[in-house]
Amino acid sequence: MTEKKQLPLRDRQITSRILISAVGSLLAKKGFKGLGVNAVAREAGVDKVLIYRYFDGLPGLIAAFAQQEDFWPSTREMAGGDLEQFSGLPLDEKLSMFTASFIQALKKRPLTRAIMAWEMIEPNELTEELERVREESIMTFFQMFFAKDKTGIDLQALVMLVGAALSYLVIRSDNIDVYGGLDLATDQGWDRISSVVNMVIQRVIPQE
Amino acid sequence: MTEKKQLPLRDRQITSRILISAVGSLLAKKGFKGLGVNAVAREAGVDKVLIYRYFDGLPGLIAAFAQQEDFWPSTREMAGGDLEQFSGLPLDEKLSMFTASFIQALKKRPLTRAIMAWEMIEPNELTEELERVREESIMTFFQMFFAKDKTGIDLQALVMLVGAALSYLVIRSDNIDVYGGLDLATDQGWDRISSVVNMVIQRVIPQE
DNA sequence: TGCTTATATCACCAACAGGTGACATGCGTC
DNA sequence: GACGCATGTCACCTGTTGGTGATATAAGCA
Question: Which terminal residue of chain A, N or C, has fewer Cβ atoms less than 10 Å from its own Cβ?
Answer without folding.
Answer: N
